[in-house]
Amino acid sequence: MQVHLVDGTYELFRHYYAVPEHQSPEGTDVGATRGVVGSMMQLLEEGATHVGVATDHIIESFRNELWPGYKTGEGVDPVLKAQFPLVEDALGALGLTVWAEVELEADDALASAAMVAEADPTVDRVVVCTPDKDLAQCVRDPRVVQLDRRNDKLFDEAAVRAKFGVGPASIPDWLALVGDSADGFPGLPGWGAKSAAAVLATYEHLDAIPDNARDWTVDVRGAARLAGTLAAQRPLADRFRVLATLRTDGNVGVPAAWRWAGPTDALAEWADRLGSPALVGRARRLAEART
After folding, report:
1. How many CA atoms within 13 Å lie on the side-chain side of 237?
2. Which end of the chain is more exposed for a tag (fewer CB within 10 A), N or C?
């Protein structure tokens, strides 16, 4: 069994900015929703059998209580924001498992599902479908990989290390030092991608980095300054690492329940709303071919 875990929030944003608007019969823009449903239909036609899609039903999460600058729904185009519940309903009508997150984030649901699937002996491989750097921490050779579907790039542990300079286990620590503008936390002053990678390639985690640069066993430009900043701001770095560490306690069920068994009767109405009359026939024919 191969499991595909899809970042529905990323897919919705991507299609919103990549495809034209499409008005439903009631005059609502469903262009991005149409794009995501079409993309998931394509994934199924390419052979995916067990699929889970995670979305940020509410963009804010518990992390907003930990850092005042953490990302919110402020600034998100209302037309895009209005399609979050639409895409969840449409994907459910297609027959896919959808995790619409409220307290946690979509990334947490994906990390939770990846952990559950990796522990399941019936699962041969877990494919986490997103280019989001946060999800790189979930990669585990040989069974959990990350896939950037848009650019057709697959990341195992070696590819993660080649991209970031650190292995998957160090990604939260790397983000804590470097920051993540997409999520709204800045990292520590002076620490950049290269310096963080060089230090963490040796020490792996923040806790293992000595406070004094004279105790470092890695040669990094500006080591004294970097060590001083980390020593003075460890509590802040630890908080950023918490923000960057994905939760794995989400309620995602078990891989067997993620098996796609075909569309529901509600897909016909959605096909009309999306202006995709062929969608129902495609989905039903594929389901019949698999029985």
Report:
1. 22
2. C
Taking a C-beta distance cutoff of 8 angstroms, is the pair 139, 145 a contact?
A: yes
CA distance 9 to 227: 37
DSSP 8-state code for residue 247? P
- For residues 164 and 136, is the Cβ–Cβ distance under 8 A? yes
How far is Cα 174 from Cα 244, in angstroms, rounded to an integer?
9
Tokens 């950049």 sit on residue: 192
Pair 275, 34: CB distance under 8 Å: yes
- Cα separation, 51 vs 196, in Å, equals 35
291 pLDDT tier (thresholds 50, 70, 90): confident
pLDDT tens digit string along 133-184?
999 999 999 999 999 999 999 999 999 999 999 999 999 999 999 999 999 9
Measured CA to CA, the distance from residue 68 to residue 120 in angstroms comes to 38
- Phi then psi for residue 51, to 5 deg, are -135, 135
Output the pLDDT for position 5. Answer: 98
Q: What is the pLDDT of residue 76?
A: 93
Instruction: Say which residue the tokens 């069974």 belong to.
Output: 143
Long-range CB contact pairs, 191-200, < 8 A, 24+: 191/226, 191/229, 191/230, 193/164, 193/165, 194/165, 195/220, 195/221, 195/222, 195/226, 196/165, 196/166, 197/164, 197/165, 197/166, 198/165, 199/226, 200/165, 200/166, 200/170, 200/173, 200/174
